[in-house]
Design a protein that fits this description.
- With 250 residues, the chain is α/β, with parallel strands linked by helices.
- The N and C termini lie far apart (60 Å).
- 27% of the residues are buried.
- The chain has 11 helices and 5 strands.
- Strands 2-3-4-1-5 form a 5-stranded parallel β-sheet.
- α9 links the parallel β3 and β4.
- 55% of the residues lie in helices and 11% in strands.
- It folds into 2 domains: 60 residues, no CATH class; 178 residues, P-loop containing nucleotide triphosphate hydrolases (Rossmann fold).
Length: 250
């Protein structure tokens, strides 16, 4: 086995795949040999760093559980949607997350609330922040199951840990009194650890009705609404728009 092969083998054993790729490139591109040792070694290290960043981002996005791929760069800012572009630009920095602030996304069915939840979640992942996505129905179901099988402490920990907790379709699913108490505890503790993204098709005035107890509703919403940015999506259902486009192609 040659020295090069031994080196490549050791790099693979050390799980330095980025360095392996960069080292092999140096043999495939003879012109790179004209650079100094420091320049060539720097390229290898940069390649490894870039590969690790890519793996880390892929892991964060996969761990977020997003139902669809989305990126703020692809956001439809057509005039009919009446999106606040300046606010979106500000939110894209994710500074609001570092300040433990929240984001409320409102709008009728089909206008793109879930997509926008995912886009902001992916944006947070790009900044190295952890995100966890849930629909309200799945979250309430998970809480009920955890209370029944005794794993509620573990579930609370998982809900409190990420920098961003996304609850989509708020207003769907039943919030019993026990589930409400768990939600209140999670949200109260998250005020000191991270941010929430809440999406709902229902107006803010209707949110109290989601919860079985008015006092609980006040406590929950007080912790969320007063330190939240708000995006209101307008316009026609995007599902209808895309369906018409598909039909037109037939």
């Amino acid at each position: 086995m040659t020295t090069v092969q031994q080196t490549l083998s050791k790099l693979r054993q050390l799980k330095l795949a980025g360095m392996v790729a960069a080292y092999e490139i140096q043999f495939d591109q003879p012109n790179l040999h004209r650079g100094s040792f420091d320049e060539r070694f720097a390229m290898i290290v940069d390649h490894e760093a870039s590969a690790r960043d890519t793996r880390r981002l892929t892991k964060l996005i996969r761990g977020g559980g997003f139902p669809e791929p989305a990126s703020l760069e692809d956001l439809d800012t057509a005039a009919a949607r009446k999106l606040d572009r300046e606010l979106i630009s500000t939110l894209s920095t994710c500074e609001w997350i570092r300040r433990q602030q929240n984001l409320i996304i409102a709008g009728a069915t089909g206008v793109g609330k879930t997509w926008l939840c995912c886009a902001f979640g992916v944006q947070a992942c790009r900044q190295g922040l952890t995100v966890q996505y849930h629909t309200a129905v799945s979250l309430f179901g998970d809480i009920a199951t955890a209370m029944a099988d005794g794993s509620i402490v573990s579930l609370k920990t998982r809900l409190i840990r990420p920098a961003v907790l996304v609850i989509d379709d708020l207003g769907n699913g039943e919030v019993t009194l026990p589930i409400g108490h768990v939600l209140l505890d999670v949200i109260d503790r998250r005020m000191r650890t991270g941010s929430l993204i809440l999406a709902s098709q229902y107006p803010r005035e209707a949110w109290h009705g989601f919860f079985p107890d008015p006092t609980m509703a006040d406590a929950l919403l007080d912790r969320v609404v007063h330190q939240a940015h708000r995006l209101e999506l307008k316009g026609e259902s995007l599902r209808k728009v895309y369906a018409r486009k598909r039909m037109a192609k037939c």
